[in-house]
Amino acid sequence: MTKLAVFASGTGSNYDAIIHAIQQGELEAEVALLVCDQPEAKVIEKAKANGTETFVFEPKQYPNKQAFETEIVEQLKQREAEWIILAGYMRLVGATLLNAFEGRMINIHPSLLPSFPGLDAIGQAFEAGVKVSGVTIHYVDAGMDTGKIIAQDVVKIHKDMSKADLQAAIQRVEHQLYPATIQKLITGGE
Ligand code: GAR
Question: Per-residue pLDDT tens for 150-182?
Fold first, then answer.
């Protein structure tokens, strides 16, 4: 069974979707570790409820990014994690993690990259008045949402949609596309 480490900072709906796909037999993997940089994040309760091991840390308690990433890499090695799945991890990955996992680290972003990288991509698209947005899954490199694109799916923005409607529509797509894309990757299909 391929061992995944899921990194998250917030609600964890994508973490949940991954767990659900594993339980349904649609994703042949296990989540060996949840890594979270926000001790109050909702995703931590979800991980505990599912029996997923967690590594929760506070970046400000470390002298720099290299120090906490070195500890993360150690935790990943202990669990023999093969892939890093960023699922709402709201932090730029540094050289320490990239050197250890480049090519085996992917991210999901709630826009059609290269449009609307960075924070609040859904709000950026909504404010721009674009007629389509969507979801991108890409390999992680040193940039902000810049790595090689693996999969995308489109969400149409209708004129009567609120920002909350758009967010819900994008998340519905994310929850299908992420587990399916991970399954293809780990079975050599992408
Ligand atoms: C997701 O919509 C994900 O695409 C986004 O954060 C949300 C996390 O939701 N990621 C980014 O914006 C990365 N730049 P979740 O915690 O419910 O999975």
Answer: 999 999 999 999 999 999 999 999 999 999 999
Q: Is 13 in the pocket of ligand 1 (CB under 6 A)?
A: yes
Does 145 sit in the ligand 1 pocket, CB within 6 Å? yes
Express each pLDDT in 40-56 by its tens digit. 999 999 999 999 999 99
Ligand 1 mean position, distance from CA 15 (Å)? 10
Q: Which domains does the chain have, with CATH numbers?
A: 2-108+136-148+174-186 (3.40.50.170)
Against a cut of 0.90, is the pTM above it?
yes
- Cβ partners under 8 Å of residue 57, min gap 6: 35, 36, 37, 68, 71, 72
Distance CA 1, CA 159 (A): 45
Cβ of 6 less than 6 Å from ligand 1: no
Ligand 1 site-directed mutation target among 174, 176, 178, 182, most atoms within 8 Å of CB = 174
Q: In what order do the strands lie in the sheet with 149-156?
A: 54-56, 29-36, 2-8, 83-86, 105-109, 132-139, 149-156
Q: Cα of 58 to ligand 1 centre, how many Å?
A: 19
